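Changelog-linked ticket: iron/sulfur cluster example.
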Amino acid sequence: MCSDLNRNLLSPEDVARIFGTFAAANPKPETELQYVNPYTLLVAVVLSAQATDRSVNKATATLFQWARTPEQMLSLGETEIKKHIKSIGLHQSKARNILKLSHMLLSDYAGQVPDTRTALERLPGVGRKTANVVLNVAFGQPTIAVDTHIFRVANRIGLCASKTPLETEKCLERRIPDGYKLHAHHWLILHGRYNCKARKPLCPDCPIRSCCAYPYKEE
Ligand code: SF4
């Protein structure tokens, strides 16, 4: 049972209970993006900005048949890349960024995806959120990429009281116990995507309902 929830921010004990519940239900959550190596993961995450994982997977199902390395992507070329990803929003600029980052991977990183935030954020089209996903999924680092689901869930249920994604990321880094940090990103995304939805959260069926401090949760 969780403690008295008559306050906005959850206690450390309640935060631990929430992540303990997530861990018991799904010990090893994974990204829903399809990929075969760190490079294809990076490309998929770049494509996923303002797009659903499902739409990205549909596009990469054919794109990755032709290109799974920076060299192969450069050989494929801009026109062909656009054909594969044309159903995804911002596909023109994303195609150009994929080509530019492939160039840079070859010229500066021997064709390998780097495993530091600084190096990743140098790549065209790669911001903090994309870097965090790649560091977490490809390299097992306990980073938390704050997307729209995580921002909403964290601030709705009393994990944080923050105004920007960066504030939320810093807050979650402080408040989530170390043992849960590696998978926290995926647990929160999946919870936001399938349970604590934006318009109508499914409170009656929610596994963390007794620990949630959202004042408008449904009975
Ligand atoms: S009880 Fe409702 S608002 Fe709270 S975490 Fe669950 S779904 Fe979200």
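Closing comment: Example verified and attached. The pocket of iron/sulfur cluster is lined by residues 156-157, 195-196, 201-203, 206, 208-209, 212, 214, 217 (CB under 6 Å). The radius of gyration is 19 Å.
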